[in-house]
Design a protein that fits this description.
single chain; flat; alpha+beta; 5 strands; about 150 residues; 2,3-Dihydroxybiphenyl 1,2-Dioxygenase, domain 1; 5-stranded mixed beta sheet; about 40% helix
C-alpha cells in the first residue's frame, strides 16, 4: 500500500488499499477428493452473494511452479477487493514452503543462477502435489445477466 501511495500521491489511504488486490486474502482448503466439487460450490456461493470477479479466475493446476486456484473479487457497493485462494492441504503447504523462493524470484536483485535454483526448487515442490480429479477444468462462474 505504501508503494501505491508513493507512486500515486493523490490517492487517499482507502483508495490505495482498494488498489492492492490481495490486501484481504482468504484461503479455502478442501480434501483432495472433494476439491473440485467444493471449489465449484464456493465459487457459485460467492457469486450468488453478490461478489463480482475483478479478474478472470487463475487456475494454476497445470503449472509446474504453483498449484491451486486464485481469484480476485470485488464487493460492488464499496468497491473493496479481496482475494480467495482455493487449495488442497498439500498445495497450501507447498505454497507456504516455497513462498520465500517465490518472493526471491520476483525480486530484480536475484541473479540468474539463483533464479534457476529457485525455479527448480519450486518445480520439485510442486511436482509432489497430487492434482485433484477435474481441478484443471475449473473456470470462471457464469456472469450475472443485467437488465436493459
Amino acid at each position: 500500500m505504501s508503494d501505491e501511495l508513493e507512486a500515486r500521491p493523490g490517492l487517499n489511504a482507502g483508495q490505495a488499499l482498494s488498489s492492492v488486490p490481495d490486501a484481504l486474502r482468504f484461503t479455502f482448503c478442501y480434501d483432495q477428493e472433494r476439491y473440485t466439487s467444493g471449489v465449484r460450490v464456493d465459487l457459485a456461493r460467492l457469486h450468488a452473494a453478490g461478489f463480482e470477479l475483478a479478474k478472470p479466475l487463475k487456475n494454476s493446476w497445470s503449472s509446474d511452479q504453483y498449484k491451486g486456484i486464485n481469484t480476485q473479487w470485488r464487493e460492488p457497493e464499496t468497491g473493496q477487493g479481496f482475494e480467495v485462494q482455493f487449495h488442497t492441504r498439500a498445495s497450501f503447504e507447498a505454497k507456504q514452503l516455497s513462498h520465500d523462493a517465490y518472493e526471491r524470484i520476483r525480486s530484480p536483485q536475484t541473479s540468474e543462477l539463483e533464479l534457476d535454483e529457485l525455479t527448480d526448487f519450486q518445480r520439485r515442490v510442486c511436482g509432489m502435489i497430487p492434482v485433484p480429479l477435474g481441478a484443471r477444468e475449473i473456470h470462471d462462474p457464469p456472469r450475472k445477466e443485467h437488465d436493459g
